[in-house]
């Protein structure tokens, strides 16, 4: 029998995703059902900016690579980790053929 325990300290994280046409409308419909007014206001602002930009039409693409959340633990800030996480995220996007 083998029992292992691993402790990992997370210094930073980049959570990325793929946005496709229609995702914004679905997100807005879901947002309308949420009770948290402050949350809704923030995302109404973000979704409004996305609608105005219309990056799908602007760049002629059917998918967009999104950097959704980028965060570095306070103890590790100021060392370029966020820049490295973003650089690596962009590299992954290019490797998978994303234009935007």
TrEMBL record:
For this protein, the record's InterPro entries field holds:
Acyl_CoA_acyltransferase, GNAT_dom
N-acetyltransferase domain segment(s): 70-99
The protein's name in its UniProt record = N-acetyltransferase domain-containing protein
């Amino acid at each position: 029998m083998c029992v292992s325990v691993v402790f990992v300290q997370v210094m930073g994280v980049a959570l990325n995703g793929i946005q496709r046409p229609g995702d914004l409308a679905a997100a807005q419909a879901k947002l309308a059902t949420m009770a948290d007014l402050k949350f809704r206001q923030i995302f109404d602002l973000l979704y409004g900016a996305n609608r105005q930009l219309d990056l799908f039409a602007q760049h002629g693409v059917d998918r967009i690579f999104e950097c959704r959340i980028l965060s570095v633990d306070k103890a590790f800030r100021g060392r370029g980790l966020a820049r490295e996480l973003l650089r690596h995220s962009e590299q992954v996007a290019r490797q998978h053929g994303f234009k935007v």
